[in-house]
Design goal:
about 250 residues; alpha/beta; Rossmann fold
């Protein structure tokens, strides 16, 4: 029970990695706030947690909206009294477009969900963490936040920004008992591709040779295990860094 009596907020927790993180956290003793734009699917995650003897609530959240982020954290505090762990997992893909094919609307949408939401949720929990001089933030970055051709230019830029934000936050608040780290998954079996609205043939053509080097596709539970480590006291000396979970894909 490595997270006993902790309160965790997990965004994008209705499916994929977020769902696996929420369920594992609950199994390790945390009270979990399951956040997702798909509230019905979020309730299914909550039902699974409760069926295993855990405690959780579902909160509908469009992370691209500031007011929804405010509501999410306020609900967590209202229900459980505090927040101890924030997992910024919600994210969407681009269509593998290179720079010359980017449309402003899609660029702004990707940054709103993948990057701005991370900043806003972090900003919202920081007063809570600073008051008690303790707190953990875990951001889901991507292999695309470390390399240049794991997605299109917009997604790649958004995840590079998350990596930089993570490092800055981890260092800035390190002396206040707050840790901020990121996970950079490689190819993982999730439904993030459903956020795509098409595909750039040119972009995919350039990326395909690298895809052939991927040792294997991961499972959401494997990323959840990393998130558990980072949330626990086992990672007390780990701060402001990125843990890659990609079976060695980026080692080439």
């Amino acid at each position: 029970m490595r997270l006993e009596n902790k309160v965790a907020v997990v965004t994008g927790a209705a499916s994929g990695m977020g769902k696996s993180i929420a369920i594992l956290y609950a199994n390790e003793g945390a009270k979990v706030v399951v956040s997702d734009i798909n509230i019905e699917a979020a309730k299914v995650t909550v039902d699974e947690i409760k069926a295993n003897g855990g405690e959780a609530i579902a909160v509908m959240t469009n992370v691209a909206k500031e007011e929804d982020i405010q509501h999410l954290i306020n609900m967590a505090v209202t229900k459980y009294g505090t927040v101890d762990i924030l997992v910024n997992n919600a994210g969407i893909m681009d269509n593998f477009e290179p720079a010359g094919e980017i449309e402003d609307e899609k660029w702004e949408r990707i940054f709103a969900v993948n990057t701005t939401s991370v900043m806003r949720a972090t900003r919202k929990v920081l007063p809570i963490f600073l008051e008690k001089k303790a707190g953990v933030i875990i951001n889901l970055a991507s292999a695309g936040g470390l390399q240049g051709a794991r997605a299109g230019a917009a997604y790649t830029a958004s995840k590079h920004a998350v990596v930089g934000f993570t490092k800055n936050t981890g260092f800035m608040y390190a002396q206040s008992g707050i840790r901020c780290n990121a996970i950079a998954p490689g190819g993982v079996e999730t439904n993030i591709s459903t956020s795509m609205t098409g595909r750039s043939d040119f972009g995919m053509g350039r990326i395909m040779p690298g895809l052939a080097l991927n040792p294997r596709t991961g499972q959401p539970q494997e990323i959840a295990s990393i998130a558990l480590f980072l949330a626990s006291d086992d990672a007390s000396f780990v701060n402001g860094t990125v843990i890659t979970g990609d079976a060695g894909w980026t080692a080439y």
